[in-house]
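Q: Sequence in, structure out?
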Amino acid sequence: MPAFHEDRGTGPALLLIHGHPFDHTMWQPQIDRFSRTHRVIAPDLRGYGATPLGVTTGSTGLDDFAEDLVGLLDSLGIDDCVVAGLSMGGQIAMELVRRRPERVRGLVLADTFPAAETEDGKKARNAMADRLLREGMRGYADEVLDRMVAPYNTHAAPHVHRMMCATDPVAAAAALRGRAERRDHRETLAAVTVPALVVVGRDDAYTPVADAEEMHALLPDSTLTVIERAAHLPNLERPEEFDAALDAFLRSLVRTS
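A: Exactly. Output:
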């Protein structure tokens, strides 16, 4: 279970799952905005932020993260919630809804994709894990910053760079190895019975709009929002536009419940 989480506000629960290699402050604009209307739970995942990695075999699977979050919800007395995840967080959200569908009353998938890793992808993730263990996070963070945050969104870059550099490389490597072995979640999405929101930055090079369109087509009841002038982190790059889409989705759940 995550050792650290932010728990703010009252009302319907909204669980925010951060991506790799970040921490819960990736969601700071949304924590501030939605804690006015919801109980917002934003944890640091295992090995990220203020949550220690603990004992590890060298690989942290999406199932490990998902069960950690179920444990957190249990400890907080939350029966069900809207689950929102970005990038790796979106893949964890898919694993959570696959394992515990009764705990999810709405699903938000941002800048993520459902397919299993390719053989080349597995090699690349494991090679990057080896590199992070050898070199630490700074070189990687320098290299990928312009893909995480579009170069024209300089306001978001310092925060993103700090989060990446502060991540424990052992935890980051373990998550990479776990993601290399993840299951294909396309069937999971086709079986989702709750409303969903799919969000993607127009200029996301990691998970392009085509990936979001695929998820939108797979999900039985979903809305697709493309955030203009944003890359992989539209919630930080264009928070007003991202929040407008999330707010409309959350309001629709209230109307239909």
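The chain has eleven helices and seven strands.
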